[in-house]
Amino acid sequence: MKTVKILLLMLAAVFCLPAFSQLAMELNSNQTHYMQYESIYMHLRIRNDSGRPMVFGKNEKLTAKLYFEIADVRGRIIEEYEPKAILLARGKVINPGQTGDIILKFSKIYNLAKTGIYRIHAYISHPMLKDQFRSNDVRIEISDGVKIWSRTIGVPDGVIGNDGRVLSRDSSRTYSIKKLNTNDIQYYYCTLEDKDKMYQTFRMGPVLGIEKPECIIDMSGALHTLVYILPKIYKYYKIDISGTLVDDGKYYKTTKTTPHLMKNSNGQIFVGGGAPAVPNVDFAVREKSFSALDE
Fold first, then answer.
1. If 259 and its partner were Cys, which of 33, 65, 183, 252 is the partner (CB 3.0–4.6 Å)?
2. Strands in 223-286 per DSSP E
3. Euclidean distance between CA atoms 235 and 250, whole angstroms
4. 143 has which bridge partners?
5. Does the CA dihedral 78-66-112-72 come out positive or negative?
6. pLDDT tens for residues 102-122?
7. What CATH architecture applies to the domain 2-11+19-142?
């Protein structure tokens, strides 16, 4: 209660001050090109040029609202993506001349499942501001990529899905490896889907030379794949039939032999050849961008 009173006093004080150029907003996406169903992140930087503190609180008189507007490549607003208010009640203050950063998983707010080119901008309203303020436009493109490998399999008996229910043995699902150019770099992606739903989409690693990811499906219906991500460095992934990424943290390096996927007499899949690789010892780990942040 005491905090609310203090914030209201600050609000009353700043309303007595003259408003100058108000807010500057800069919007950026973590990529310019996305695989269909890939997670999309937006980074909004707000600079307070109003000459007075901007208070973001839980009280109605201090709550800012953030909206996004989505248009096609010709600038026409897409009605199915109705602007949704995101309340910025973070209990913080942006002082004059300072900046505040907001990072959002955009694909959780809007289901951008259709391929195409989109232009997105943000605008913000606040009880302390007379007008709404709009950001720059961000252009993104969503594509279904180029398929280089695919396998459709029946669901084995007794497999439990992500919802806790046994999957129908009559159903089938398709694993695919695809290529897509994102930010001028070509990447491999893995997807799992059936005729009604996409269960998983993730980026595996960059396309290096002519070497393609190795892929083996085991007896449980899980996909094991080994992808060449850096010179002499490979990364291993395992994704199960329900779409869960079971293993995505093992790295291998070339020694006198090259890492490869192998199957033992029991049908188990493992990486043979080479040796385990240690991040930041055998290879440098690239710093994560804001795309790695999640709610």
1. 252
2. 223-230, 233-239, 245-253, 260-263, 269-272, 275-276
3. 6
4. 35
5. positive
6. 898 999 888 888 999 999 999
7. Sandwich (2.60)
DSSP reduced 3-state for 290:
helix
Q: How is residue 196 written in tokens? A: 């009604």
The ranges of the chain annotated as CATH 2.60.40.10 are 2-11+19-142
Tokens of 145: 């990529």
Residue 6's contacts (CB-CB under 8 Å, 6 or more residues apart) are none
Where do we find the tokens 């943290």?
249
Confidence at residue 55, expressed as pLDDT on a 0 to 100 scale: 79
Q: CA–CA separation, 74 vs 57, rounded Å? A: 37
pTM: 0.80
Amino acid (1-letter code) at residue 228: Y
Q: Starting at the edge strand that comes first in sequence, how are the strands of the sheet with 22-29 ordered?
A: 22-29, 41-49, 99-105
The per-residue DSSP string of 55-104 comes to EE-SSGGG-EEEEEEEEETTS-B-TTS----EEE---EEE-TT-EEEEEE
Q: What are the tokens at 76?
A: 């026409």
